[in-house]
Design brief:
Order of helices and strands: HHHHEEHHH
Low-confidence stretches: none
Number of helices: 7
Distance between the termini: 19 Å
Helix content: 55-70%
Mean pLDDT: 85
Radius of gyration: 18 Å
Strand content: 5-15%
Number of strands: 2
Structural class: mainly alpha
Strand order of the largest sheet: 1-2
Length: 141
């Protein structure tokens, strides 16, 4: 179990990295912050039904429905009929590409931060983030 001190350190440090490297929300493809949040959560898979998205994102059903219709008309998602009235929401190849075309983090800012560190410390940063990624993947199973 993680100690409360480690948890507090992560809560303090993560926003420092995020805000130091975060890009502007202006995108040339017209995707809004809400669109990107939806795409990221659909990619996650756990919330690939509208009901899960409305609860998790705190959106009304009508707001989510309008956003999904817009994303679907742009070819970024598809809604597949499942059992009953539920429709599974999946990213299309275009949706994945749109999401990854601009991850929201500025590579130049990351480079500047890493340049402040010795090469071995840069490797440790990447190794630490990889460990976190592996733990997240294990939790998804």
């Amino acid at each position: 179990m993680a100690t409360s001190e480690r948890i507090e350190q992560i809560k303090r440090l993560y926003p420092l990295l995020y805000f130091a490297c975060h890009r502007s929300h202006d995108r040339s493809d017209g995707l809004t912050e809400k669109d990107l949040r939806i795409l990221h959560h659909v990619q996650d898979g756990d919330k690939a039904f509208a009901s899960g998205l409305t609860r998790h994102l705190g959106l009304s059903r009508s707001t989510l429905s309008a956003a999904l219709s817009s994303l679907e008309s742009r070819g970024l998602i598809e809604r597949l009929h499942g059992s009953g009235r539920r429709k599974r929401i999946l990213l299309t190849k275009s949706g994945v590409e749109a999401m990854h075309s601009d991850e929201g983090l500025d590579g130049k800012a990351i480079e500047s931060i890493l340049d402040e560190l010795e090469e071995r410390d840069q490797e440790r940063v990447v190794e630490g983030l990889a460990l976190i990624g592996e733990a997240i993947e294990r939790l998804k199973r």
